[in-house]
Amino acid sequence: MDFGLSEEQSLLEASVRGFLGDHVPIERVRELREKDCPNDRSIWSGLAELGVTGVLVPEAQGGSAMSLLDAALVSQALGHAATPAPFLASAVMAPVALREFDAAPASDWLEGIAGGELVVGVAATELFSVREAAGVALDSGVLRGKAMMAVDACGADLVLVATDPEQLAVVRADARGLETTRLRTIDATRCTAELVFDGVAPEAVFEGAGAPIARMLDAGRVALAADALGACESMVEQAVAYARERKQFDRVIGSFQAVKHMCAEMIAEVEPARSLLWYAAHSFDAIPSEAPLMSCHVLAHVGEIGREIASVATQVHGGIGWTDEQNLHFWFKRIGNARHLLGGPEWLRDRAARLQGFGAGA
Amino acid sequence: MDLEFDEGYDAFRAQVRGFLAEHRPPEAMGLVHGDRQRWVEWLTLLIENGYWARTIPKEYGGYGAEPDLLETVIMDEEFNRAGVPRGLPAQGPAMLVPTLLAHGSEEQKIRWVGPTMRGEVVWCQGYSEPGAGSDLASLQTSAVEDGDDFVINGQKIWTSTADAADMCFILVRTEPDARKHEGISYLLLPMDTPGIDVQPLRTMCGDIGENSFNQVFLNDVRVPQSNVVGRRGEGWKIANTTLSHERNSLNANAEGTLMRLARLMEKESVGGVPAMASPVYRDRLMRLQARALAMKHHGMRMLTCRLKGESPGVAGLVVKLQNCQLNFDMAALAIDVMGELGVLYDHTRYERERGYWQAHSMFSLGLIIGGGTAQIQKNIIAERGLGMPREPRPATA
Fold first, then answer.
1. How many domains does chain A have?
2. Cα B185 to Cα B159: distance, rounded to the nearest angstrom
3. What ipTM goes with this model?
């Protein structure tokens, strides 16, 4: 019985955090927000050298075939540093789906993913939320329609498109008839795009792909929760550091109970959420029957505590926390984006209830 | 991450289950209202089989096994599942015994530990005073030396089971001139000593349950000086080991409560439809379930830290704050689901589950306050866990 991180996992976490601390300080993030797509390839290559891009890719395709908990720790580190990187789609969601299909071309793509030279986006929003009459359909061998808020798609080489819960199409990002437009959100550190398909010929179509698509979303939700929790952690650290330094009324403000209690309340949410995250990630590999429920719960829960922490940590900083210059808003916005990217809390909790048969009679 | 128990533990679990299949506690056991002798028989049987006082040395009346946290977890799980009390949930076994084992004299251990674990001697805790709550170290009850005795004068409050207790472990000020944390001693006081007056303190919970709170008035109460535990003037330090036992013992079975709440929501209907079919109530339940799952796995993480002998750091300091609030919030949803009938009480007609949820709600509120209020917990989290500075002390007059 050992509910905790292994030594290897702690080392992995430390090495990714160390790399990001050295190479992606927040000043670098500020520069990247001016670009068309923030997912900078040089950062991605650096992460590939650490072996992070292939964390969920099978060894046969050059990956390290680690667990989702390992991937979640990387994701958490990326959220902690507010690093723009296509980790969620390219290193978590795409490999989890593609590794279910043994043969080429899936195996070739997995090799490219592990090496970091192939970046894969994912368009699956319409499986849980249809807006603007979006939806993509395969008709006479070509794709038509549009996909909203596709993850990490604008700087990608390849995009996985879930046309329905059972069918997964793969398209080249530069395919004829595909128009990709970045949809700018509050969050400058994550790339989301609208994809318009006007008779796009896919590279591959996987039919009967219900299980791979469901696993892809479960894994994505856990990784996204980890990312947002990492961002929460960083905001709490910054708030505590600021409160220990900033003086008003001849005292550091951290000695006022009002401020101290704000910080205590935040960490009191972060730590149990970390335990929930560990379990949700662990269940994905070890207790797969629990993974759908746990992935919904962890993302919804982090969405809730994240909104509060993002607000309170900013308030601890007072007016300066509200400025662009202080940089705190990068994390605030990353947390805000994560709350909705793969299903909002209300939708996730409704699914959690249905998964347990609660209210099924109605 | 490995959530399996090693093989040897399966045999232990089977042994516990075997015991529980054969033995049930006698009915109508009680310390305050019921038959105490039945408790003594049950506890004695548990000790003989090693399910209670398991790691206490034999010479002090225990079973004498080596400490093994996982065995404790397994026993708790199996007894909980069977709905059977594993030992006596009272302050003597939970707080006095660990304190005596750490700080008591050989004679005190031999005299008190066994009888306390067997329920033959029932204890109450004399800590809080009307003027010393969160700031416990400011307590004023005095013990003045007189020959071989101390003579105690003062008042204690929130004294659970004082009306049924044989003994009290009490904090008193023995050195009035010492600094406030250094003038306190930890005494063992027989409750039948002349000069002790116990007055019941009715709580908001009313008469449901077996909780009794009291005020204890002490007027020229004589106790031998040999009843001091540890050294005179070191009572604060000794009490702090006891307080940490209290915080550790406030662990909640949040998952069990959540499932009980879910069953209520399937059964209870609002406008002809089960509450569970209402998106509003169901969403609230799911929010609570996520919190309950977080605390369940957080508990497993804390257990792992203890197994490895690692300090959980700030993660360990948030447990009491979160569990108590979660319990209160679960009861709140149950009450809301029952709507206008959710306020029925005192075993009135139509009352659900014999008033469990209202009682649980009010009792949970007591736990949010007791054993260190939520505000004190937040100070501890911020100061010890996050390294934030203490409140500067006002200049004393």
1. 3
2. 18
3. 0.97
